[in-house]
Amino acid sequence: MDETRRSDRTRAAILTAARAEFAKSGFQSATVRTIAADAGVDPALVIRYFGSKEQLFQAALDIRLELPDLTAVPADRLGEQVIRHFAGKWEDETFREASIFLFRTAMTNEIAAERMRAVFREQVIPHVASLLADPAEAEQRAAAVMTQLLGLGACRYVIGVPPLVELEIDTLAARFGPTIQRYLTAELG
User: Fold this and answer.
1) 123 DSSP assignment
2) Residue, of 3 and 147, whose pLDDT is higher
3) Cβ 188 vs Cβ 140: under 8 Å
4) Fold of the domain spanning 3-61
5) Any residues with CB less than 8 A from the CB of 181 and at least 6 apart, and which?
6) Hey, what long-range contacts does 178-183 have (CB within 8 A, 24 or more apart)?
7) Where are the domains positioned within the chain?
């Protein structure tokens, strides 16, 4: 195995252990030593990769939605495509783990809550604005979209509500896409 892949695996193991430990113990009680032990590495490696416990916490909160370019998608199919992308991202174990950690932690930690707001400001609003004839509506429309996506994510992937967990992504897109569609294209009222 080459050094880059080993380094990536070590970094990923540390982040996985950090998310679990921060979620279980909270930022204040979590220790670099415990995180390192759970990751199977020396504590010095945690500091080498992340610099400090605070920087590790910030890295653990980092979420990249990698929203696709939807400008070529027919306007009446936007909602379905958003749901497909969102559900597809959550099906990825690494993304799901990071998202669940961020979601849970944001409920009780202001740093995590601010990170969620930053994802909304930096990733969601500009993306929604690119789809609209009136970009001034982007913030309101993006907020509406986020309510649906966060609710769906929480119910399907965090809580595990059985009817939602059992649905195929195409069925999710067909059922929830129209709501996202409305948020993106219907009159704001």
Assistant:
1) I
2) 147
3) yes
4) Arc Repressor Mutant, subunit A (1.10.10)
5) 76, 78, 79, 80
6) 178/79, 179/79, 179/148, 180/78, 180/79, 180/80, 180/82, 180/83, 180/145, 180/148, 180/149, 181/76, 181/78, 181/79, 181/80, 182/79, 183/79, 183/141, 183/144, 183/145, 183/148
7) 3-61, 75-185
Longest dimension (CA), the chain: 57
3-class secondary-structure state, position 6: helix
Q: How far apart are CA 38 and CA 151, in angstroms?
A: 31
Residue 124 token pair: 């969601």
* Residue-wise pLDDT tens digits, 65-103: 898 888 889 989 999 999 999 999 999 888 888 888 888
Q: Which residue has 């380094």 as its token pair?
A: 7
List the CATH code of the domain at 75-185.
Answer: 1.10.357
Q: How far apart are alpha carbons 80 and 171 in whole angstroms?
A: 10
Q: What are phi and psi of 61, to 5 degrees?
A: -85, -10
Residue 18 near residue 57 (C-beta atoms within 8 A): yes
**pLDDT digit string (tens) for 37-66?**
999 999 999 999 999 999 999 998 888 889
